[in-house]
Structures are given as C-alpha cells and as structure tokens.
User: Fold this.
Amino acid sequence: MKIGIDKIGFYTPHIYVDMNKLAVARNVEPEKFTIGIGQDKMAVPPITQDSVTLGANAALEIIDQADKEAIDFVIFGTETGIDHSKSGAVYIHHLLGLKPNARCVEVKHACYGATAGIQMAKGHVALNPESKVLVIGSDIARYGLNTGGESTQGAGAVALLISANPRIMTLENNSVSLTADIMDFWRPLYSDKALVDGKFSNEQYISFFQKVWEKYKEETGMDLEDFEAMCYHLPYTKMGLKAMRTVLEDASEEVQERLKEHYRVSTLYNRNVGNIYTGSLYLSLLSLLELNDDIKAGSRIGMFSYGSGAVGEFFSGILEENYKEHLLVKEHKDLFESRKEVTVEEYEQIFEKTLPTDGSNIELDINEDSATICLSGLTDDMRQYVNKMR
Ligand code: HMG
Assistant:
C-alpha cells in the first residue's frame, strides 16, 4: 500500500521585517544576512498568533468535509507549545471542527517533531488504511533582540495530510535516524527564548547529515544520482547548502548542478519566512514542489530532518502523477503578497509584547490580524481562541 502526503497547507503571519533594514539597525552589512545567512524577510508573529493558531490556520486551508470525517489522529509537532500539560492538538481539533472520535497528541523533539509525527502517521495508516492523519509542524523561533540568533528567527506552520494512496508524494520506507545527547540548542522551561551554541549547532547539523546519509547509502545502495532533489531542515537557507556541499563532489557535474538548482528553489519560501523549526523542512519541500518547473512525477526527493539536542533522519519520497494539481500555489503566492512590512522599531515593540504570566486576564485586539484563527485573550490562565469563520 502506498502511504504519504496527500495535501500540504501553510501559514505564516501577515507581517514581516526586511532583513536589509534589520542588518542596518544591527550595524551589520546587509549581505551578511541576505547572502551569508540567506534570509530576505523574517516573519513577525503578532501577539494574537501562537503555535496553536499558526498550526490551525495552516490546516484550515487543506481540510474539507470528507477529511473532517476521516481524520482520526492529529499529531502536533512543536517546540513552542503553549502548555506544559494540555496538547495544542486538542485546541486545533476543536478549532477545525474535527470528529470527536479522534486521537490528539503533541510531539516534541526540537525541529524534528513533525518528522516523528509523519513516521507515526505512516504506521497508523498502515494499520488503518481508511484513516487520514493530520500532522502539523508549527513554531515561533525566538532568540532575542540583538542576539546572534536574531537573524534566524521566524514564525509559521505547515500542515500535512497523511493517507493511503496520497496525491502528492508517497513516502518510501527506507530511512536512517541518529540520536546523540548534545547541547547545541535548547530552551529551559522558564524561558521563552532559545539558548544556542551557534557554531557548534552548525557543526552538529553537518555531522548528523553526513552520518545519516552515509548509512542510508550503505543500507539502500542508492547515491546522489538517484535523487532529483534534496530538501533540508532550514534554520536559515545557507545551512542546508553547507551540509550538501560536503557530499556533492561524489556526484557528476550534471547531478551536482541539478541538486544545487533544486536546492535554490527549495529555499525560496524559507528565505521569506525564517526558521519555523518543526515546519522548516516541509516548507522547503513545499517551496520546491510549488515553485519548480521541471520536476516530473516519479522523481525521488530526499529529506534531511534535524532537531537540535539532537535527532536527525534522512528519508525520501516519490512524487505522484499530477502532484502539482494538488498544491495550493496561488493561495500561497497570495499569502506572501498580502503580507505587510513593519519597521525594525515596530518589530521590536511586537517582540517585547508578551502575554501576562502572573495569572491576570487580557483581551487582545484581533481586528489587526488578518488570520482566520486568532488568540483573543487569556481568562483565568486559559487561552481564548477565535475562528472568525464561525
Ligand atoms: P554569526 O556569528 O552571526 O554569523 O552566527 P557568522 O559570523 O558565522 O556569519 C554567517 C555567515 O555569513 C558566514 O558564512 C560568513 O562568512 C557570512 P559561512 O562561512 O558560514 O558560509 N558573512 C557574509 N557573507 C556575505 N557578505 C558579508 C558577510 N559577512 C558575513 N558581508 C549563526 C550565525 C547561524 C551561528 C547564528 O545566527 C545562530 O546562532 N543561529 C541560531 C542557531 C542555528 O540556526 N543553528 C543552525 C544549526 S542547528 C538547527 O538547525 C536546529 C534549530 O533549527 C533548532 C531546533 O532544532 O529546534 C536551530
């Protein structure tokens, strides 16, 4: 039985800051951010968006009535969850109006959470071929103003519908995972900002990629020429390239050129959003699938998932006939075009505005936020969500 990705939804907040202007404000040459890091725009989450609303908005654009009746498992991958106990998946289940007889959980391992969710979903569909699983990767990347990681912040979510006989991509069963207990990036429970050893995290990302790729080649007998393209977890768009370059020389000139060009296309959406942690690899896949003009059905796409701390995995998928017809290219073009720029000062004010942590209530103005699903406030320590369509 073929199991894989049947639909892909995406959402990012309606405001962004220009990386050239952020560079000027931080006394850095703009090319460091736009070329050295590889980011043009950074999504800025307003206080009315959190990982739950971003995820629900991403799912909203792909879920129809038939899906609502078939989804019996919601897996919410996030590392910026909103509660230590209750899963964000339950809020999303409610906001989308899914059927009551469904299982809902939140999965955490840094940026690897959504990949773990996809592998669980595959197993679930293998045992229950009629079922559909909604897997969401949703996060807000926060390092802090004037920090080394600031240029790699971002916000957004990708929602994937995993089913039998998928219309976009069949996921292959070969995959290689790797785990090692390291401290390259983490976020203590008391903090809403991540801590990071930047250089070490880059080294570990590359080393994890090399190790899983070598083992994958050994186990499958495949090599670079068997892949039309490779997508990477993209904390910033230069990162995947740095990893890919370390193995490229094994391939012919033609294969190298093809992989580099497809890599470029796979970074276009991420360049304009920033790091969305769990969703980053799938945003890169979406960018490749929606923006390429030469990748044919039957092509194999490699995927490298990396979650600091650390877990890495290399796996692959085969594109289905007419996969392009099932993508929301126009909707995503409109989403990007409808965003509004904020100044660096406005971004800083938005960044500093956080929810109360002393138990007090707050009512938020959701009229400024163009999203369908928003956070409207806190009452007695309970988040209040609104779906404007209801
Ligand atoms: P930094 O110290 O600001 O930057 O840290 P740098 O000095 O290393 O420079 C970055 C690049 O810009 C370099 O290129 C420079 O040469 C270049 P490279 O040598 O690396 O190819 N550069 C220029 N290029 C053109 N024109 C110029 C210019 N000036 C400099 N004028 C760092 C960068 C990424 C470390 C920092 O932003 C950071 O700590 N970010 C957060 C951590 C991170 O993203 N790590 C990535 C791997 S870990 C991961 O992916 C997991 C993660 O997503 C979390 C999770 O799993 O949950 C983060």
Q: What stands out?
A: The domain at 3-168+327-387 is CATH 3.40.47.10 (Peroxisomal Thiolase; Chain A, domain 1).
